[in-house]
Amino acid sequence: MTATTEINKIISKENMVYGKTSVLLDNEMHYCPGCTHGVIHKVIAEVIDEMGIQDKTIGISPVGCSVLAYNYLDIDWQQAAHGRAPALATATSRLMPEKYVFTYQGDGDLASIGCAEIIHACNRGENIVVFFVNNAIYGMTGGQMAPTTLEGQVTATTPYGRDCAVTGFPMKITEMIAMLPGTRFVTRQSAETPGAVRKLKKVVQKAFENTREKKGLSFIEIVSTCSSGWKLSPVKSNEWMKENMFPYYPLGTLKDE
Amino acid sequence: MAKFKGAIVVDTEKCKGCGLCVVACPTKVIELARDVNGKGYHYAHMANPEACIGCSSCGLVCPDTVITVYRVKAS
């Protein structure tokens, strides 16, 4: 038997172990090659599919690269003004308490312009899930400095590296959120290796289960890459993230009540 | 001899050639093709299909979900 016929025998529906979930639409994602957004979308879609909550989930998309998330996940969506996704999620979850409401925000949206919104939503302990995608840069607008940009990191607006004496220090949002009594589950994950993706999936599932049990706010930070903004290849971006971001933004669960 | 034999199917027209699957593959099955797809990306393909064990690592890390993984018990 030649190799090709053997492979053709393996490729049949009953042998499929991994494929695209039906919650993810067939639209081609507009993200750059290797963008972590794609992985996170996929993980959220898989969890929604496995929990069977597709018709009960409402996503709030932010302003940023992931503004077009409503093109990719086959659930109900709303689109918030810049940084105001937690406010919209508050209203949605209070008016429709039986729904699973989540916001999906980047670091420019959540940590910068929407900082007040997220802190107060977390302090009120709304029954929502927050996905915070932290790639230490403003990806969509061309790689400017974000509040989470690391010290010395070169961006379009800090061409000599971020000087903390001038621009302040990189914000550890997740640590801040974990201190608030309103939050129930606060964790920081990544999605660069198969193991990390599996871990992220477990965490996302736990967050949606918290919503089902009306436990309160679950906050998931995902340390991500921006290969276009960082001007590195996708593989090099992952290496850079491991080397530079993980020491400052250590992975792990900060709070689980 | 591996206990499982696997195979992957890549939606080559949707693949953006980021190469994350190439790094994630534990048995070095995947490589980026010399040819390009309609968008000009060097798509991923099975360069070494005999070594595939169907572990789904490539599928998990693929940002564009273009990889479908199949697996059978090795006879």
Automatic annotation (TrEMBL), chain A:
It holds the Pfam family TPP_enzyme_C. InterPro entries: 2-oxoacid:Fd_oxidoreductase, THDP-binding, TPP_enzyme_TPP-bd. GO terms for molecular function: oxidoreductase activity, acting on the aldehyde or oxo group of donors, iron-sulfur protein as acceptor; thiamine pyrophosphate binding. Keywords: Oxidoreductase. The keyword Oxidoreductase applies. Residues 70-222 form the Thiamine pyrophosphate enzyme TPP-binding domain. The keyword Transmembrane does not apply. GO terms for biological process: cellular respiration; small molecule metabolic process. This is 2-oxoglutarate oxidoreductase. It comes from Labilibaculum filiforme.
UniProtKB/TrEMBL annotation, chain B:
Residues 6-35, 43-72 form the 4Fe-4S ferredoxin-type domain. It comes from the Bacteria. Pfam families: Fer4_7 (PF12838). InterPro entries: 4Fe4S_Fe-S-bd, 4Fe4S_Fe_S_CS, Fe-S_Ferredoxin. One of its GO terms (molecular function) is 4 iron, 4 sulfur cluster binding. SUPFAM superfamilies: 4Fe-4S ferredoxins. This is Ferredoxin. It comes from Labilibaculum filiforme.
